[in-house]
Amino acid sequence: MSDRFCIDGGGLIAHTESGWFLQVGFEQTELAAETPPKVVAERFAHLCDSVKGADKRCVLGVPSGECFFVCDELPDSIDAKDRSAVTFELERHFPLDAESMVADYFVRAASGQIAAVAIETRRHQPTVDALEAAGIEVVSILPTAFLIARAFYRSDAEKSPFTLWIFASTSAESLSVDGGGVYRWRQFYDADDELRRHQATVADQVDASERTVIVGRSELTFQPRGRVQWCDRDAVRLAAEGAGLALGGRWGRWPDLRRGDLAPSDPLFAVAGPLRKLAVAATCCFLILSIAAWYRGNRLAAESESVRQQQRAVFAEAYPGRRVPVMLMRTVRGEYSKTLGSRGRGDAIKLPVPATRVLKDLYRGLEHAQRVGGVRLRLMDLKIVDGVCSLTVRAVDAVQIGTIAKSLETIGFDVTPPAAEQIDPSKDEPIPTYQSTLSAVWNPPANRAEEGVES
């Protein structure tokens, strides 16, 4: 019992290689991997009832094999605060559509890069629904490896960057951590051999003073580069400590996947009472505004009728003997236009941009994408109206969609940042493809500098 960490304020539900791991307070239990989410929720609720003073709250630990991670530069056209735009940008890095994943990220202050984690929604939705149905509050959804790394970093005396190696029975993980959080995450399924090859690959990049922290092993079959530090706590204890941080509101700005489609079904439960009072006040305010609008509308209608009568009187005076028309202002504007025409004044008619001129530059852009960017594409639909193009293209991956957009910009088009949609294999397309509808505005050569692209 002394080797265990007591989780206050709830518990931990972690999906591991061998199955489910549950802990509330000091109490722990394990379930088989094929255990249904409903049974997991029932066992956790029973565990909470058996621990005196335990709250039915939990942190859901996600296995590393079901997570996706990237740390990369964010395009200048995307605002890091626009979560929706960033999520669609992540489609270029993850084999998931933005609609089918839940992602969270943070911006690294040192490099300006974003470090993002994502999971597939439908894989974890049944577990979250089962826990909520059992009356259990899911506080956070976090990769189990992040729980371990966060707990070690908080208790680390040096507070300097380190690489954390977490060993399981048949696999291992490597997480590089600094003051901003995790910025590199790799998984190794043949732990010793893959780690040895990985060390040989990065040998020239590792500083002799860099720390490598070992969790889950007492010895290694090879000597890592840099300074080796052995952690005296196992992965289970560190995961429990990390869950305690999340339950206590001390998780910080590290990613948390309890958002999007996996967000709480009733996130405003704690403020339901004040919201009801606010709703009553808003209803009263709406009634007052409605009465005021009705009164003001009647006044405006009366004044409008008075103005209309004055206009009819002025028209009768200006055109004696002529019947006052029903569409009075239209007649007045028509007479005014006739007067301007008799004086030789008027505006020139603006001609639309010929589609043939736009089409020539459009095909130059597509040819440039094929020749320079190596893009294989299929043009599904094309529409050109007064210099504005809407074209639907299909390519083998989402990156090539971006290459097509950049090629069109090179030719001189203003292209809206594209969003790609994954198309499942079919009879016509036996492989997965990505399709996007690009919106491009053609700029005449007089309004832009020539880019020097070959015709």
UniProtKB/TrEMBL annotation:
InterPro entries: ATPase_NBD. This is Competence protein A. It comes from Stieleria magnilauensis. Residues 420-455 are annotated as: Disordered.
